[in-house]
Amino acid sequence: MKLGSRGRYAVMAMVDLGLNAGAHPVRLADVSHRQEIPLSYLEQLFARLRRHGLVNSVRGPGGGYLLAHPAHHISIMDVVAAVDEPTRMTRCRNESPSRGCMANRTRCLTHDLWAGLGDHIESYLDGVTLEDVCRGPQRTAAHYLDHNATSPLRAEACEAASRAMACAGNASSVHRYGRHARSLIEDAREAVASYVGCSPLEVVFTSGGTEANNLALLGPDLRRVLISAIEHPSVAKAVSGTVTIPVDRHGCVDLEALEGELAHDPSPTLISVMAANNETGVVQPLADVMHIARQHGALVHCDAVQAAGRYYGAWQEADLISLSAHKFGGMAGAGALIVRDGVPLAARSRGGGQEYGLRAGTESLATIAAFGAAVTAASADDCRRLRRLRDDMEARMLDAVPDAVVFSGDARRLDNTLAIAHPGIDAETMVMSFDLDCVAISAGAACSSGRMEPSAVIEAMGFPSLSRHTVRLSLGWSSTAEDCDAAVRAWKAADTRHRTRRQAAR
Fold first, then answer.
1. Which of 93, 325, 495, 498 is placed for a possible disulfide with 371 were both Cys, Cβ 3.0 to 4.6 Å?
2. Is 447 noted as a catalytic residue in this protein?
3. Mind listing the pLDDT tens digit for each residue in 126-158?
4. Count of CB atoms within 10 A of residue 282's CB?
């Protein structure tokens, strides 16, 4: 069949136009980026499409292309014919008897078979419109269950960011524009302080949770740093020479081991224990950790990136607390380190003296404003709703695969998190299988540039054989029962495919 790249790419581009062009034209650069088609090639295709009256060009700022007719009036065959040669299944030129497909210019015995197939293909393509393709299976609703990696932007945060982006001032300037920018930052600072339960003077804005963790661990001039065995890499890799405190099979820090380490060496110490684990959702016994630390004169840093916006608790009493906006519906690029009054901390970046001299550099106005709006909205979330959805989803997945393993299921967990392993399917395969069924989940922490490696958290809990099989489903403010239903269907489908392959291999 003669259907070259021109026809295929033109159809892809026209479908993209049908999906994204409303009242405003679509730029070819955007189509090129989404469909991974070279821009120069698209320009050639759209010149042909325009000549055939299928698209209209709009020049000037904000220009681009629009469909020349409603999507249901443009057939796929119209698009192919505009940019490519007619589809043909034989070697005959123009189907002429004098130009047969055999060397002696006669038609081959199967000529009519292939010619008929070509006619059917053209008839099929002529009966399918752009609208049909835009509404087809590839547009199945997506179900997002990866809130622990990042949560979709809340409307309140988006609106706050838009208002901030309209502000031309630098928050360090003294004119009215600068004062307006400063007021937006201080409003967000007060919102964060109100949620955590601290003074606004204790809120230091950063670029995110990783910078906050690094500032907390690298700032204090202390001889020893103790961390739990399941900390996020931005804590585990922040400083060298840390002492690792083991965890039990539920992922909870070993309090006896912690106390033993503190009693063994009375040197000034910083203890870093996360509020809730990003992979399993297990909630750490921070009240006990802080009690032990106070007895030995140690400072406590808490990575509360997963906890903030999801539960109130002892993490709010730590000496240093890390937060990240995009985990509960803010924008990526904004975080904060809560530094309690009197806690010694040295700046890691120096310059203009912003953020009380602890974090130099012009503040990111839009992301900080969105941070304040998101944390205010998150404080009203109904976490019990997420727990009901999670528990029901978990029960149905275990019912479908009884030998599956749920991690930290017998301990206190975040209401939104489910870490589960299918012993027969590796995590990468499971994530891809879910993705094919339009359900987004993950395999552990989203901090490795897309790499899927054995889970260090699951290994630290004492389950090395399952560290390559564990996936995480995490709900959030936008999650629905339909999302969970889709996840259960995807889980069952993956298990069915696994069992079918296993039986076929016998």
1. 325
2. yes
3. 778 888 788 765 545 589 999 999 999 999 999
4. 26
